[in-house]
Amino acid sequence: MAENEWLSKDFYKVLGVSKEATDEEITKAYRKLARKYHPDLNKTKEAEEKFKDISEAYDVLSNKQNRQKYDAIRQFGMGGARFAGGSGASGFDASGFSDIFGSMFGGGAGMGGNGSRIRFQTNGGGNP
User: 68-105 in b/e burial notation, b at 16+ Cβ within 10 A?
Assistant: First the structure.
């Protein structure tokens, strides 16, 4: 399933577990529901659809990386999810800002060209 569809699905609810559920609790819930709705045991169309949803939820929540991505997408929404993982073409990379400020201010905002702090002195009369 594409990650952009995860926002509309509550996989924890599908499996009947809390967001703090352990891997073991997720697996136990999946197995229980899979036995109940497996197409070989339950021949109804609703059971087939439910089994697909259960399998999809388990595939995401049983994989640590996918679960982290899913939780980030659900927590921050699609706009924030691009920042959560920091990977992929849509990830946000702030390293370019240091290059911009470095060229404008000679080494970074508030820093001298050699990395030392810039200090301002006044002569008391208002003329530096």
Answer: ebbbbbbeeeeeebbebbeeeeeeeeeeeeeeeeeeee
